[in-house]
Amino acid sequence: RSYFKGLNFLLNEQPDKAIESFIEVVKVDPETVELHFALGSLFRRRGEYDRAIRMHQNLVARPDLGAEQKLAAAFELAQDYLKAGILDRAEELFARLETGAHATEARRYLLEIFQQEKDWARAIVMAGRLQDDSGESRAREISQFLCELAASETTHSRPQEARQHLQAALEANRKSVRASIALGDLERAAGNLERAIEHWQRVESQNPAYLALVAPRLLDAYRQAARLEAGLTLLAGYLERYPSLDLLDTVFQTTLEAKGAEAAYKLVRDELRRNPTLLGLDRLLEAQIVADTHPERRRDLELVRNLVHSHTRRLARYRCEECGFKARQFHWHCPACGGWESYPPRRTEEFDLSP
Question: Could you read off the pLDDT of 155-176 as tens digits, one per residue?
């Protein structure tokens, strides 16, 4: 009777009452193994990890349980530990399950644990095993893990080791934009401006959407090499072929500083005609304010620009394609869902205005 009452509560989306009814069944008949599994899963979904752990620990400890059911209970227990943040115990259990029926799922969870622990070397090995298991390419993730190792080496002032990791990242995934950007950064730090520019220009052939991320670097390098005009010409060509709000902003600001308000105004006016955006309008108004000498007209323009600017600031965010999480800063690894390269390097305004 309690069992059917519990099912009824579940069907009516009353999990609290369902759990209490199922607990009654378990008290009356402790041999109900499947019900123990169901209860453990319910506890875990509700965030009651202590109760889920106890339920699955009891199952693992039962001497009358078959080998297959014991493995299933250990797999559930490992998931409980992972959800509860007890990573060492979760890792230990999943490692034991790597050779059984749950091998592939255990490896997926182990990969998740290694990423949480930032143990990138073991994450690379595990991603390789998963790739062998399923035949599904993990090249993008592996290249990102290698880039993380390179970033760690760079932080500890070991550029040569960082360079080796980045070259390995490009071997794993020749379209790894992050590796090209980081190699350019290493060359610039070493004073090799031309080689840095070569690495950053490679981004166009890898994925031109990411040119907005390297545009400020390219302009700085050209400025240091006393070739700012050539840098502006290059980026103006990129802007024409691959329109982007961030790219427009970079080219506009540099043109305003180097050539004055009139040249910046013409640049942003032409771009606004090709791709009407609020950010473009914002920059057009900024150029007009700089060029206008009439005090009253300037005040009117500033009023309009402030209204537009308050709105563009809300739109100037990046959005994860996996979970929709928005951030002002670009991320290679989504802080919300943990996806790699799930942030397109385009602001939300560009998505909102896209057909």
Answer: 999 999 999 999 999 999 999 9
Dihedrals φ, ψ of 20, to 5°?
A: -60, -40
Q: What is the number of residues in the chain?
A: 355
pLDDT at 293: 73
Q: What are 333's strand-pairing partners?
A: 340
With tokens 């600031």, the residue in question is 313
Tell me how far apart the alpha carbons of residues 78 and 179 are, in angstroms, rounded to a whole number. Answer: 35
Half-sphere exposure of 14 (CA within 13 A, CB side): 11
Residue holding tokens 């970033």? 151
CA angle, residues 194, 218, 252, in degrees to nearest 5 = 150
State both tokens at 256: 């305003």
Distance, C-alpha 76 to centroid of its chain: 28
Within 13 Å, how many C-alpha atoms sit on residue 230's CB side?
10
Torsion of CA 95, 96, 99, 104, to 10 degrees: -50
Distance from C-alpha of 238 to C-alpha of 273, rounded to nearest angstrom: 17
Tokens of 248: 């427009």
What pTM did the predictor assign? 0.80
Burial of 63 (0-12, 13-18, 19+ CB in 10 A): exposed
> pLDDT of 129-140, one tens digit each?
999 988 889 999
Strands 326-327 and 318-319, by their bridges, are antiparallel
- Which residues pair with residue 319 across a beta bridge? 326
**Element housing 327 (H / E):** strand 326-327
Which H or E run contains 318? Answer: strand 318-319
CA angle 170, 176, 180 (to 5 degrees): 75
Count of beta carbons in the 10 Å neighbourhood of residue 166? 29
